[in-house]
Amino acid sequence: MMKLALVQLAVGAHKAANLCNARAKVLEAAQAGAHMVVLPECFNSPYGTKYFGEYAETIDSSQLGESTQALQEMARTGKVYVIGGSIPERESTTGRLFNTCTVWNPEGTLVAQHRKLHLFDIDIPGRIAFRESDVLSPGSSLTSFTTPWGDFGVGICYDMRFPELAMVAARRGCVGMVYPGAFNTTTGPMHWELLLRARAVDNQMFVAACSPARDVEAEYHAWGHSTVVDPSARVIATTDETPGIVYADIDPQLIDEVRRSIPVTTQRRFDVYPDVAANPR
């Protein structure tokens, strides 16, 4: 049994304060018995295209930046896995910007790095328009990492809307998908929980999403409602829009139980339709 913690962090304009706040909450979760702690998307900065360049850092395990050094220290001090939400990353060789999640093991080793694959470009007339692609470049590979409780896949926010990531992760043996994300007060009530439960029921795996807390004084209003869903698509832990920590017990044996009861994993008809996990990048 693994104890998962989602830190619904209050994020402001001051990077150092965000990192200090994140550290306090990660260590609080570790003290409460969490084995894995998740931070939200853009946990070190406000969310917005005009902020990505200002807050961006290179990600290099041999020469850590301000945010990655803080994440390493959180994992090492708390002796927990830390899924470091995401930070704006500046690629050292090209200067391109990415929305990137780093994952750290309890020894403080960088074990995975996921660049957001699907950029948040939407326009809901009269409600919200946003174009990450004006500033960011998309990633180009799938991401998972290994723990004593099984492998976990990683996506970031808008990646959640594309079922292929979770499908590939599940068929590669992952027990869960984790999505740091920052849906807003338009898309959140429409689809946040629906998408989490859909990814869970389609793949009979655990799914978790960690949001920033809502700040009504900010330009972008995050939905909040960090949530964990089990392999039967039941919401087993959630919260509202305010700062806090969501805890859930992850029992990998439940996956086997669910898959024995409704064995869709062995009933797929790849003679009729293609297997998207056959040759993933």
Give a nutshell description of this structure.
The chain has 281 residues and is an alpha/beta fold. It contains six helices and 15 strands. The chain is globular, with a radius of gyration of 18 Å.
Give the termini distance in whole angstroms: 30 Å
Give the number of DSSP strands: 15
Shape: globular
Helix and strand composition category: alpha/beta
Mean pLDDT: 97
| Portion of residues within helices | 25-40%
Biggest sheet record? 7 strands, mixed
Q: Approximately how much beta-strand content do the residues carry?
A: 25-35%
SSE series: EHEHHEEEEEEEEHEHEEEEH
Unreliable spans: none
Tally of individual helices: 6
Radius of gyration: 18 Å
Description of the structure:
The protein has helices at about 15-30, 50-55, 65-80, 165-170, 185-205, 255-260, and strands at about 1-10, 35-40, 80-85, 85-90, 95-105, 110-115, 120-125, 130, 145, 150-155, 175-180, 205-210, 225-230, 235, 245-250. By secondary structure, the protein is an alpha/beta fold. α1 packs parallel to α3. The two termini are about 30 Å apart.
Break the fold down into its secondary structure elements and pairings:
Blueprint: E1 2-8, H1 15-31, E2 36-38, H2 49-55, H3 66-78, E3 81-83, E4 87-90, E5 97-104, E6 110-115, E7 121-124, E8 128-131, E9 144-147, E10 150-154, H4 164-171, E11 174-180, H5 187-203, E12 206-210, E13 227-229, E14 235-237, E15 244-250, H6 253-261
Parallel strand pairs: 1-2, 2-3, 10-11, 11-12
Antiparallel strand pairs: 1-15, 3-5, 4-5, 5-6, 7-8, 9-10, 12-13, 13-14
